Amino acid sequence: MAVLKINEKDNVAVALAALKRGQTIEFAGSAIAPLEDIPAGHKIALKEISQGEEVVKYGFPIGRAKRKIEAGRWVHEHNLETSLGPIMQYEYGPAPISLETRDSGKTIPGYRREKGQVGVRNEIWIIPTVSCVNRIAELIAEQARYKFKGVENIDGIYEFKHPYGCSQTGEDQLATQKLLAGLVNHPNAAAVLVIGLGCENNHVAAFQEVLGDYDGDRVKFMVAQEVDDEIAAGLDLVGSLLAYARRFKRTPCPVSALTVGLKCGGSDGFSGITANPLVGVFSDMLVSHGGSTILTEVPEMFGAETLLMERALNRDVFEKIVRLINDFKEYYISYGQPVYENPSPGNRRGGITTLEEKSLGCTQKGGSSAVVDVLDYGERISKKGLNLLSAPGNDMVASTALAAAGCQLILFTTGRGTPLGTCVPTVKIATNSTLYRNKPQWMDFNAGRLLEGETMPELAAELWDYVMEVASGRLTGSEKMGFREIAIFKNGVTL
User: Fold this and answer.
1) Same domain (yes/no): 57, 145
2) Taking the complete model, does pTM exceed 0.85, yes or no?
3) For 63-95, what is each residue's pLDDT tens digit?
4) Is 102 left (phi over 0), alpha (psi -120 to 50) or beta?
5) How many domains does the chain fold into?
6) CA distances from 254 to 105, 106, 366, 379, 441 (A)
7) What DSSP letter does each residue of 188-227 carry, written as one string?
8) Is residue 341 part of a domain?
């Protein structure tokens, strides 16, 4: 099979391998001949498409033809443009949801925390309140890893540097504080050392107000300006945190306690055919077992948002989705940017032309279950099931937001490839086998096998088992390589 027509309504198909001009392709009982060379993952017109006519993929419009497109032509930026506009009005029209949700009783070996939380790692995290102490946090972590090497039941000691915490005001500073508070409260962190400088906007006392109640044995604070030797003082505090953290051991924990983040980056023309729908099946499986998933990247919902709105649990959730979408569009407009300034150059090279096309592929990671809630940036999950989270498409910013919202691990699909890793295990899922073979150190799972004869149920069951292994302690590629970073969304002024 050289091309794939995804939906019977489509007037384009996807080239599964590079097509040569003039070659004859047997397709749906007839033949079609490309009028030009077409790269793998890109679109070929199945019929003549008039200027201004909608181009249809996945059964939905992905834009309009800039000019007449003959059957057999390559369909891309030169002859296809977005139809997206500014703020839209939406009507509540719920679609029936048939997915059953229950706590299946299945378990994984995890770490039981206070207040019913479950961690999939037992780590010590060092979190700066402000960028000025980033290097201090780094030095303490480096020396602690050496000094306390081999301590029983500890999966690692890690610092998470960031560029903010001072010269911020109002909502911008609060967003930073809420994001960091979400990390301090994360169940993968057995214990946390928070390091402040002393004179920053987000000083320790101010941060503690946002953090709220905390266990003084689990969370320690140090203000660098108030100690003689900040490295020695930090190491002493890490030592006491290790004594607290090492008491945790893996015990049977319910799968329903898992929250998995859904993310894509470096997408290509195969993302919406292989990896994203595969992750969507996983999402439905976890939700059906009583667990939760979180879908983010709001700009990559533009053009497919009505499909999520139809699945809103109720009118209140529908209204939240409308605000989520329109607020992000207003954010773009407030900076004089078009709402469709996407896909990225790499996406385009991979075969994605318009934001509608990217979004229709991207949102498939959310499966078919009901949307139960919408979370603000920095907000933690509180309702079981599929949640939407306000965050941009930027890979590191969105991944960090997923972690802060409570995700113990993230499923990250990619067709172009990325080594990215954040503060929680990040399972990298390749959309095509070529990427999986070429970057084994980056990729954890190959969804490209769906184009090579394997069925969705078979591969979904395998992905489920793999994710459960990661939740039980198996290291991802990014963890092995030491890729552990965070990034914070910034919108306000810098003083």
Assistant:
1) no
2) yes
3) 999 999 999 999 999 999 998 877 788 999 888
4) beta
5) 3
6) 6, 6, 22, 23, 31
7) TEEEEEEEE-SSSTT-HHHHHHHH-S--TTTEEEEEGGGS
8) yes
